[in-house]
Amino acid sequence: MSEESRRPSKVERNRDLASPPDTLHATRETWNDFERRVSGFALLLEPCPLDAARLQTGNSLKDNGLKMFDALERVLKGLKPVSRGPLPNVKQFLDDAKEGFIYVSLGSNVKWEKLPNNTLEAFVDGFSTLPYKIVWKLNPDLLPEKYKNILALQWFPQQSILAHPNIKLFIYQGGHQSTEEALYYGIPLIGFPIIWDQTYQVRNIVRLGIGVHLQIDTLSKETVKATIHEVISNTSYKDQMQRWRKIFKDAPYDSLQNAVRWIEYVLRQNGTPFLRNNLCDDPWYQRYDWDIIGFLAIVLFIVFLISIWVLLLILRCKMLKITCKMFIVLSLWFLLANKITNAGRILVIIPTPLYSHQIVFQSLCLALNRRGHELIVTTPQLIKDSTLNTNYTEIKLPGFHSLVKQYKEQIPQLLLIDLFKRGWMLTHQFSTQIFDNPKFKKLYHSNSNEKFDAVILELLGYPSLSIMSYRFNAPLIGIISVGIHNYHRYVFGSPIYPSHLSNWEINTLTEENPSIWQRLWNFIETWRLVHYWINDFVPLEQELVKKYLGNDVPHIVDIMKNMSLLLVNENRVLTYPRPEQSNAVFFNGIHIQKTPPSLPKDLGQFLDNAMEGFIYVSLGTSTTCHTLPKETLRNFIEVFSKLPYKIVWKFDCDELPGKLDNAFISKWFLQQSVLAHPNIKLFIYQGGAQSTDEAVHYAVPILGIPIMFEQENRVRRLVSLGGAISIKLNELTQKRLNNAIHQILNDKSYKEKMIRLSSLTKDQPYNSIENVIWWIEFVMRHKEANHLRFSDSDKPWYQRYDMDIIALLAIALFIMKCVIALTIIQIIRFILNNTVLSRY
Questions:
Q1: Cβ–Cβ contacts within 10 Å for residue 786, how many?
Q2: What is the DSSP string of 666-696?
Q3: Which of 461, 455, 525, 519 is closest to 491 using CA atoms?
Q4: Within this chain, do residues 410 and 442 fall inside the same structural domain, yes or no?
Q5: Same domain, 414 and 525
Q6: Mapping DSSP to helix (H, G, I), strand (E, B) and coil, where does residue 773 land?
């Protein structure tokens, strides 16, 4: 049996991660499988401000320098760093440097005597005429003579040197830890890179304005002196270094403790395969759809050649009528294809009139208010709490009930992509009414003197409202309650994977190991939807902005690209891991109450008396008794009536269409209180984000009946983790429903897997809501967080994945193969012709 045939599928591996440790080794596994399972986490020693922002996988942890903090603690406490032998009176030399001193070190791997002959000479000649003292990590024997202003030794306690108040400048080779230490102490830099990643590090310090690149190929006495003079005399380098030093030291937790915490987390969970990106199982050419892009490039190239051929036929007046029609069709096709805790003041805009969305936003707003921040919250669902701080102001938006009702009624009839398009048109109407709202208009009016430290905007289809960040000159913070969408990824520069298991924005979900034709269709559907958002929906929103704020405004996509932070309500354990942009902060369960409120007396007695247990049924707020198919409703009633369990059913009509003696019916329940009850056996739901968090938190097995949008994908993930069964709404029959209920209730593994998942999601290094608030305050403290922004968002879409390069190579290979094939054919013809002639 081959290694590939022995390898478990992604679904099997996903099930394993929800299993207790002793069940993970039931069968013999290959080395690759073992490596995938146990190598679940990576610690990255990387100071984020100094590294260009890029994508992060779910199982990587960036760290700001563990080595530095250990040594730093010794220095700050007055302990002497470990010495490598007796040192001269270095301190006296530094204290006497009235004009300041320059520290020079090329690290431990670069030897001055191995550099080109003129290198040492250029530095010595340049240093000897300076008014500053020089502290040089150098073998003193290499100096041609003794210099009064130069102290050369083979080793220095570097952090003690950098911490000295008289230091003016650090000349170094671009070493990683030296960069961190210079940043920590706020010392301007001159980078003299020699090997490996040092040029990259120095390029970053130049980009941030905290240093200058001194190049070895243009080195001379004059360039050394001029570069030193530039950095010391130009105060902008010191100012920028102080700014980035402040950002670097502004961390939500202790770096070392956080790394140790995650190592212990991996040990507790016996590995973290659930954080591993499934893309690592795909062939290299499928990870970015290179085969699809190459195939499409060749197809387009062939169509182009056919078009040229047809055009030539037209010019020769042959097949005029037929070719004219073909030319018109092809021309139209091409035209269409080318379209292919200092308190701050915060403006919060959360327009979506759905309770499941608002409950998350309200929890965050209340927590910010408790921290002392003043909030102006624009929302369709007011909290109406008289005990709220006076610094909490709500602007009531219309509930758009008729529009939302019409949209809900269309859900069963429309494909997902059409639902997206209708949904965006709906949010466009919401945005129009928000701009027209008198109280809101008073805020953004040109004569308004309102000022805000941040603007928090819900990102579920309201790009026009991002203009408020520009209007108030405040950093923009996005928040979304159901995960990042592909059009968000397009704007932020994150990769879009049409055939990854995480992609639910297609009419048919991607299955395990899809064929190339399935992947081709996924590619077309995914990019067609992104194309519609960019080329059809965004222009409507841009016109809306111009209507209310004038023509002299930036493009809303450019504003969104510069978003400081993206807050995402998503549990990384319960989703398919994938790389995301570095300015995304994930949170989950912030709406879950530590102690759920008491149940109403009648419901409490009903549940307490459920000796066999009870089943809780809720299909959310978007699915109503009017939109649920009548046949489906009858199937529910028939199956429930025969069960020995009691039924608690969130049903928004006044009465059921059939008799159900064992049921408690209500239009609304305290859901968390119901899920927390010890007698609950099963939760039947539609796959909502917040309901999923609550079910996992209380370890309640799930029967998912997804209705719309991302619900099917969320339920599918829970099925792969072993905590749920899924039934599609259009496939629900009495037999399937009854079998699914009994399978979950009779098989203890579903409950055990949910207990395991609950443990995983609760095992966090910090409080989720406190972490979100810290990052919001971080943005307000520093006025932005552009160092977290992924620079690829500025590139054209085809360059982000090298689509133009892949297309060019695909066409070149296609032409080369055609030429080779034609050459072989000509050779064969030549041989055959010669053979025939030789016979005569």
A1: 15
A2: ES---HHHHHTSTTEEEEEE---HHHHHHHH
A3: 461
A4: yes
A5: yes
A6: helix
- Sort residue 83 into left (φ over 0), alpha (ψ -120 to 50) or beta: beta
Cα–Cα distance for residue pair 830/579, rounded to 1 Å: 56
At residue 20, the pLDDT reads 46
**This model's pTM is above 0.70:** yes
Q: Are 362 and 383 in contact (CB under 8 A)?
A: yes
Asked if 433 and 522 sit in the same domain, the reply is: yes
Q: Per residue in 570-601, pLDDT tens?
A: 888 888 887 777 788 888 888 898 899 999 99
d(CA 766, CA 779): 19
- Taking the C-alpha atoms of residue 217 and residue 641, their distance in angstroms, rounded to an integer, is 85
By CB atoms closer than 10 A (0-12, 13-18, 19+), residue 344 is buried
pLDDT of 201 > 70? The answer is yes
Which one of 363-367, 522-526, 678-682 scores highest in mean pLDDT?
678-682
Distances (CA, A) of 255 to 136, 259, 265, 642, 709: 31, 6, 15, 57, 38
Decide if pLDDT at 465 tops 60.
Answer: yes
Domain that holds residue 397: 346-587
Q: Which amino acid is at 786?
A: N
Q: Which residue has the tokens 């070190």?
A: 105
**H/E element, 82:** none
629 vs 337, higher pLDDT: 629
pLDDT digit string, tens, across residues 685-694: 999 989 999 9
Q: Which amino acid would we find at residue 526? A: T
719 and 819 together in one domain: no
End-to-end CA, the chain: 58
Q: Residue 296: beta bridge partners? A: none
Within this chain, do residues 189 and 113 fall inside the same structural domain, yes or no? yes
Name beta bridge partners: 310. Answer: none
- Can you name the residues that pair with 457 across neighbouring β-strands? 349, 478
| Domain total in the chain | 4
| % pLDDT > 90, the chain | 40
Q: Say if residues 47 and 162 touch (Cβ distance below 8 Å).
A: no
Q: Are 382 and 355 in contact (CB under 8 A)?
A: no
Would you say residue 464 lies in a domain?
Answer: yes
Structure tokens at 426: 């709906």
Among 250, 276, 291, residue at a domain's last position? 250
CB-CB contact of 475 with 780 (8 Å): yes
Q: How far apart are CA 266 and CA 17, in angstroms?
A: 12
Within 8 A by CB and 6+ apart from 214, the residues are 171, 190, 191, 192, 223, 224, 227
Strand order in the sheet with 101-105: 150-153, 133-137, 101-105, 167-172, 189-191, 211-213
Alpha carbon 199 to its chain centroid, in Å, reads 28
**Residues whose CB is less than 8 angstroms from the CB of residue 238 and which lie 6 or more positions away in sequence, other chains included:** 186, 188
Give the bridge partners for 137, in sequence order: 153
624 lies in the same domain as 736: yes
Mean pLDDT for all residues in the chain: 82
- CATH code at position 447: 3.40.50
Q: Is residue 314 part of a domain?
A: no
Q: Within 484-600, where are the H helices? A: 486-492, 516-532, 538-549, 556-561
Question: Is-contact 758 702, C-beta < 8 A?
Answer: no
Q: Are residues 138 and 242 in the same domain?
A: yes
Long-range contacts of 157-163 (CB under 8 A, 24+ apart): 157/80, 157/81, 157/83, 158/103, 158/105, 159/68, 159/71, 159/72, 159/75, 159/81, 159/185, 160/75, 160/81, 161/90, 161/94, 161/103, 161/135, 162/103, 162/187, 163/75
Q: Tell me which DSSP letter residue 56 carries.
A: B
HSE (side-chain half, CA atoms, 13 Å) at 256: 8
Q: In terms of domains, do 714 and 580 share one?
A: no
Least confident of 11-25, 168-182, 602-616: 11-25
Picking from 741, 762, 783, the residue at the C-terminal end of a domain is 762
Residue 166: CATH number of its domain: 3.40.50.2000
